[in-house]
Amino acid sequence: MLAGILFSLGLTSLLVRRDLIFVLMSLEVMLNATGVAFVAAGSRWHQADGQIMFLFILAVAAAEIAVGLAMVLRIYHRFKSLDVDTLGEMKG
Amino acid sequence: MTTLLWLIPVLPFAGALLLALVGSRLSRRAATAVGVGSVGLSALVTILVAVSFLSAPPPGDSYTQVLWTWINVAGFQPQIGFYLDALSLVMVLVVTFVGFLIHIYSVEFMSEDDGFSRFFAYMNLFVASMITLLLANNLLLLTLGWEGVGLCSYLLIGFWYRDPANGLAARKAFIVTRVGDTALLVGLFLLFSRLGTLQIQDLMQRASQQWPAGSALAVAAALLLLGGAVGKSAQLPLQVWLPDAMAGPTPVSALIHAATMVTAGVYLIARTHVLFALAPAAQFAVAIVGAATLLLAGFSALTQHDIKRVLAYSTMSQIGYMFLALGVGAWQAAIFHFMTHAFFKALLFLGAGIIISALHEEHSIFRMGGLRKELPVAFWTFLAAGCSLAGLPFITAGFFSKDLIIWSAWSTPHGHPGFWLAAMAGALLTSLYTFRLIFRVFFGPLGTPVTKRPGYAMRIPVVVLAFLSIVGGYVKQPLVDFLHSALPPTIEAHTGGLTEIGSEGIAALIFLIGLYLAYLFHLQTRSLADALVRNPAGHVMHQWWFADWGFDWMYDKAFIQPFVWVARINKSDFVDAFYTGVARLTELFYRGLSRTETGHVRWYAAGMAAGSVLFIALVLFL
Amino acid sequence: MELAFYIAGAVAVISTVLMLTRMNVVHALLYLIVSLLSVAVVFYVLGAPFVAALEVIVYAGAIMVLLLFVVMMLNLGGRAAGMERQWLTPGIWTGPVLLAGVLITEVVYLARGATAGLGAGAIAPKEVGIALFGPYVIGVELVSMLLLAGLVGAYHLGVHQAEKPEIQHDADTHERWADASGDLVLAGTDQPSRTP
Predict the structure, then answer these.
(1) Residue by residue, what is the 3-state secondary structure of B57-75?
(2) Pairing between β-strand B62-69 and β-strand B79-85 as defined by DSSP bridges
């Protein structure tokens, strides 16, 4: 349940926020929330699998944020703004 | 020899096929050889068959040759079969022989035309269809020939297709005859559904057995067949197409619209005479149609100034005579008149063709004149044909055949003095308009000068036909006797104060009166004719008769305008709206969906989220 | 134990909410860190000490720090806050909140049957290790490849940026791909990229 709540919060913020950094942050929140869900499930059935899934998710999150931030840097230097809507329009 | 019967229609058909497929690659000579040769060979075969038939008549006076069964459906097996008896033999002889002569003529007439091989392909196809029609042993095959001649008529009237007026005339001909064709088909349906066969001989037998005289079914069937005949033969009320059909080349008019196709109706009625005999009301209708048409056309012919239109109305009138003969039960007279008419009418048209091409496409008789010395061949042959048409006593064939009809109109059981009177009046008109034509074109001061003289190919056929127009009448008695084997004899029921000789005498007198009047108005004091036309009453009549007694106008108002109106309303078709509605619905969806492609990332993310939420909800709660 | 769970959970939720609503990026980041830490506590309570440690070290430690670095580098402090204030109108919250509400309902509905088997026994790190190198070894390999890809990608994206702060159009397709990364539509065409 906690996971669910956290996930929804993350989703909401993702949709609301226009700043790219915030978008990435809320993505992190969502990923974290799913991790919670997995771990809880693992603990419920007393298996290590939940934690392993969490590990994988963590790794994914790490990779994703690395690449994402690099792109953020590029975008900022290119467009001088991090507004998602404007960036989208430029892409057409 | 009679086994060669099948060659008669097949030869021209093969010629047509050959010319249609490779005609454009053949040289003029080769195309001529194929086109004229096929009809020539067909004529030759006909003569052979005729000789064999006459010398050794087959049993029952008829010979049937079945090629194969065309359709084989439960209870309905029409064949490709040919039926030769006196009636069909006479008609096929005339068609092939006259057709052959006209083909020879056409070689020179169409020599400068680009569509030379196309012309002969169509003409050959026409001859093949006509012969199929004449020789068919069942009504379905007859209808095939019927439709074939209709098609060729359309193709040939609109032969010079680059001029839209020709196309219009061709379409008019086709549509009007189509009305008749529909009546014919309905008649066939009726006959088949009631009597179970379309074989002509069987049909006649069953009809006479099963239907009492005067029964409604017989009358209905006969009237429907009459409808078909009326369309094809350009009688009242479907006569409006024939004058406009003169837009085609002159040989076409000669072959199709004088000698052959227009007589298909006559043939049909003669063939199914048993049916008509069973339906006196229908037969009476035939006579009425014939009498009315011959008078109407005669008046109209008197006012025309296009030489071919005069001849067209004349054709209409003469076929009216044939219908009259059929209507009063003078079957042999009708066929005899068909034969003589074929000779002199074809000749008249060919002569007109010579004149028209000599005068460089001049059609109006009021601009012609004095061609007696310039075109002697044309003059003498035209004169012979004209006298035959008008009925110059004893010398010409037309006199014999027409007088037979006039006398039968008086004397047969179905005859009536009214018919006799109408026929006589028609004869007066015939004489009048014929000599009006002759005096205007050949006598008097020179009108349009002659630029071209006809060659041999044009001169020989007209001379041959002129000869036939004169001597053709002498075969009257043998012909009538010969036809007795196929058609019931004409009974002389009542004479009531008139003999045949007497009737002939009166007819001769009428001929002379017409000649004199024409001389008066159109040669001696031509101003008299103009005065008559300018006179107010005369003017009205003139205009009215000129416009074919207003039939064109009437049909336009009654049928064409409403049809066009309906078509115009129907342009916003509601069925169409259904299909465009489908298209528009798709377009609507497209526009709606394309609005979701905003390019905004958040919008897409929201879409995804919403979608997945919805999906989960569906899975959970349904 | 249960109490700890609920408290930690509450902290996590509250801090996340606060994080969402901050104008200033740095503030939001800090709240996020708090949230992550409380989630780590949750993990510990759930009997996964290894994961809890991992969360703190990797997630809160490395990832958040990275985010902070970027924020500092791009100097998104005051100016961005002003823009955020402009953008975040109350009306904008309605749609997503609705959506989230539906989602929460679904989750609650799903989760209502489950009881929290808290403290059913901690799962030792040793167990996790054995499982990792046992049945899940393929997963480990894949993840390592993924990390490698991420590394290379991030490096590649980052390296040109230092050399060319101004993007100019070149005939070099490699360059064009690189500087068209922010402009997918024009990639591969001959048009000069539009600079704002």
Answers:
(1) CCHHHEEEEEEEECCCECC
(2) antiparallel
Domains of chain A: 2-79 (1.10.287.3510)
> Residue B323 in contact with residue B333, Cβ under 8 Å?
no
Rounded Cα–Cα distance for residues B231 and B177 (Å)? 5
Question: Residue B60: left if φ>0, alpha if ψ -120 to 50, beta else—which one?
Answer: left
Contact A82 C62 (CB under 8 A): no
Q: Tokens 């199914």 sit at which residue?
A: B272
Tokens of B485: 């084997």
What does the alpha-carbon distance between residue B595 and residue C10 come to, in Å, rounded to a whole number? 41
- Beta-carbon contacts of C95 under 8 Å, excluding residues fewer than 6 positions away, are A15, B606
pLDDT in tens, B299-355: 888 888 888 888 888 888 888 888 888 888 888 888 888 888 888 888 888 888 888
E-strand ranges in B123-253 read none
**C150–A67 CB contact, under 8 Å:** yes
Query: What's the pLDDT tens digit per position in C82-95?
Result: 555 555 555 666 66
Within chain A, residue ranges assigned H as helices are 2-16, 20-44, 49-79, 84-91
Closest of B153, B147, B152 to residue B188, by C-alpha? B147
Q: Which amino acid is at A53?
A: M
In whole angstroms, what separates CA A68 from the centre of its chain? 10
CA distances from B515 to A21, B435, B503, B580 (A): 116, 6, 18, 69
Q: Give the predicted TM-score (pTM) of the model.
A: 0.65
Secondary structure class of B84 (helix, strand, coil): strand
Q: Which residue among C80, C123, C181 places its CB closest to the CB of A74?
A: C181
Residue type (1 letter), B66:
V
The two tokens of residue C131 are 């499982």
d(CA B409, CA B406): 5
pLDDT at B106 over 80: yes
- Residues with Cβ within 8 Å of residue B76, at least 6 apart in sequence: B192, B198
Residue type, A50: G
CA distance B112 to B154: 22
Q: Confidence band (pLDDT; 50, 70, 90) for A17?
A: low
Tell me which DSSP letter residue C171 carries. S
Q: What angle do CA A1, A16, C84 make, to 5 degrees?
A: 130
CB contact under 8 A, A88 and B601: yes
Report the phi/psi class of residue B77: left, alpha or beta, with left for phi > 0 and alpha for psi in -120 to 50.
beta
User: Could you tell me if C49 and A42 are in contact, meaning their C-beta atoms sit under 8 angstroms apart?
Assistant: no
pLDDT of res. B81: 83
Residues whose CB is less than 8 angstroms from the CB of residue B460 and which lie 6 or more positions away in sequence, other chains included: B104
What is the predicted pLDDT for the residue at B492?
61
Dist CA B596 CA B607 (whole Å) = 9
Rounded distance, CA B266 to CA B513, Å?
Answer: 30
The SS3 assignment for B56 reads coil
Angle between helices B86-109 and B331-358 (to 10 degrees): 0
- The rounded Cα B550 to chain-centroid distance in angstroms is 21
Smallest CA-to-CA distance from B282 within B209, B210, B420, B183 is with B183
Burial per residue of B395-426, b for 16 or more beta-carbon CB atoms within 10 angstroms, e otherwise: ebbbbbbbbbbbbbbbbbebbbeebbebbbbb
Q: For residue B367, what are the contacts with CB-CB under 8 A and spacing of at least 6?
A: B447, B448
Q: What residues 84-123 of chain C have any CB closer than 8 A to a CB of chain B?
A: 95-96, 99, 102-103, 106, 109-110
Q: And the tokens for B64?
A: 């049937």
Mutate to test the interface with C, among B600, B613, B619, B622 (most CBs of C within 10 A): B613
Residue A28 contacts C, CB cutoff 8 Å: yes
Cβ partners under 8 Å of residue B179, min gap 6:
B227, B231, B238
Helix (H) or strand (E) holding B198: none
